Queue: 2 jobs
Job 1
Amino acid sequence: MKSLLRAAKRQLLAYPFFPALNLPFRAFDTWRRYIGPTTGNWLRWLFASRADSNFTYHLTDRCRVNLIASVASLLAKDFTEIERYFNEIESDNAFDAHMRALWRSHPERYRTDETPLIGRRVVWYAVARTTKPKVIVETGVDQGIGAVVLCAALARNTDDGHPGRYFGTDINPNAGFYLKGDYAKFGSVLYGDSISSLTTLNETIDLFVNDSDHSADYEEAEYRTVANKLAPAAIVLGDNSHVTSKLAEFSVREGRKFVFLAEEPRDHWYRGAGIGLSLP
Ligand SMILES: C[S@@+](CC[C@H](N)C(=O)[O-])C[C@H]1O[C@@H](n2cnc3c(N)ncnc32)[C@H](O)[C@@H]1O
């Protein structure tokens, strides 16, 4: 039947009425393969999740392998070493327990999911574990999922003899809810406008994560502000690189390498963000 349809299609391809004839087939096929599954995920998510922004999800297995291999290539490490870091945070019971325990008293728990899914932040963790930064700056802390992930990396780096400090920035005075307890020993949030905080920050930055105001101009301004504070081997991660090309442009201007790593959420309607990774 399928081959008959295909043969008929080949015969009709050259006629001007073909687009009208082909439309229902295109509609059916794209619904079945793309729109339907996404709509199904969206409907399930509406009821299963409470999140209304900064969505959280698992990554697909193939995305995870692609990310591990990409990070390993970029940092010139073995796949197994980077995979170990992915496994480390993904199976970190202390991290999981910390987030779940705090969620119970979270003033925003009715718009926040209990299960702490870190998505692309697993790459932030692996980069921090691999490069052992002395100073990490993350602009845009929000509830503090990234902050805790990065401080978990600093905690293990400290155990390995490579201590480091985390500085978050956020304009929201309530940001950083999850950055408490043992994780807060490794860093704190600088409240106020990120550019102002970065301007007064008197530190040499080894790992910079941009995730605050996601307008292109603001993102660019952050890179310009930290340009002369970056350590020679500093890595810059852009959480807005699926939206703008500002980190790529900054990297070209500064003679740095740039790659874009795409995120692929599992069983989620969100198409995924990406990670811009800029390195010397
Ligand atoms: C996408 S969220 C950050 C998510 C966080 N990095 C994480 O891992 O979950 C963006 C945050 O940027 C903050 N923000 C927006 N504009 C800002 C500004 N001009 N200065 C500092 N923070 C800002 C918002 O308050 C918000 O908490």
Note: The chain has one domain: 49-279.
Job 2
Amino acid sequence: MQAVTIDDGTIRVADRPDPAPGPDELLVRVAGAGLNGADLLQRAGHYPAPAGIPDDQPGLEFAGTVTAVGDRVVDHAPGDRVMGIVGGAAQAELVTTPADLVLGVPDGWDLVHAGGAPEALITAHDALFTQGRLGPGDRLLVTGAAGGVGTAAIQLAVATGAEVVASARGEDRHDALRSLGAAEVVLPDDQAAAGPFDVVLELVGAPSVATLLRSLATGARIVVIGVGAGSRLELDLLALMGARATLRGSTLRARPLADRVTATRSAGHVLGTLAARDAYTVPVAAIHDLGDAATAYDDFDRGGHLGKVILAP
Ligand SMILES: NC(=O)c1ccc[n+]([C@@H]2O[C@H](COP(=O)([O-])OP(=O)(O)OC[C@H]3O[C@@H](n4cnc5c(N)ncnc54)[C@H](OP(=O)(O)O)[C@@H]3O)[C@@H](O)[C@H]2O)c1
């Protein structure tokens, strides 16, 4: 099969042996595989794959069609349309995945577009509800809101009855974020003035958090998921104390399988409800052929997009 590989910091498409599913796994023919920040870090040699995953084959999410199932799998069959998150190697014609880690692709969804859904959906759902305890009526700030996780978070939060403030540079993307349900869309320089916030989903990093410490409602929860703009800040603990606020961080990829299954199923349950009433979309900025993976990586790295960049094998 053809697979995206990292060769000394360079993205290449190479021939790799077809993977075979283990007893509890599925073999999936990939239709779409989204790009994520972790892929860029892995390309740069800063994000080693978890144990058991080839270090030089990136790709954390996919959607496609099941072509074979392991001996112990009972709830999936060849032909099923599935999507999911894996520890790596999803940017390829074929991928294996634990059967427990996949979600059904909602009826009517395009399989290529679906390949950009799972990582953002599951990350945003886990961060908002499990980590941030977001509830109806809460005022939420999503920073870096125009990307995959941000656009997923806006929709999930609005569906639960939260009031969403989206912060994004590039005013050309602001109308699209409003159409996803954000009540207010601001530039990063104006985000602090839009508080107080009950929950902050921090997708940009330290410089953004630093502006928000005086914009927290009592009992606020800041959940740090992305630190692309930097991970170190000088923290005024007094401001945190004054708001009785919580600052926490989280990652998904390195968690034990059981935790990832729980996070996937929780998000999948909500997606099922939203997709049934057409209340969730995956904004897609670009789709590239697998053979153009290097261009896709550069495109994703440049930023400025709305939603996902997806590889289509
Ligand atoms: N912890 C986890 O488990 C986990 C899981 C998934 C993702 N992540 C991380 O979460 C972050 C968001 O993921 P994503 O998939 O949504 O990424 P994405 O699609 O690349 O979106 C990132 C967004 O952040 C904006 N941004 C970046 N630097 C900024 C800055 N200095 N000031 C203002 N905005 C800035 C980007 O704006 P431009 O387009 O203008 O550059 C873009 O809209 C990434 O850092 C990713 O690595 C973490």
Note: Residues 36-38, 119-120, 123, 144, 146-150, 168-170, 188, 203-204, 225-226, 228-229, 250-252, 303-305 surround NAP (CB under 6 Å).
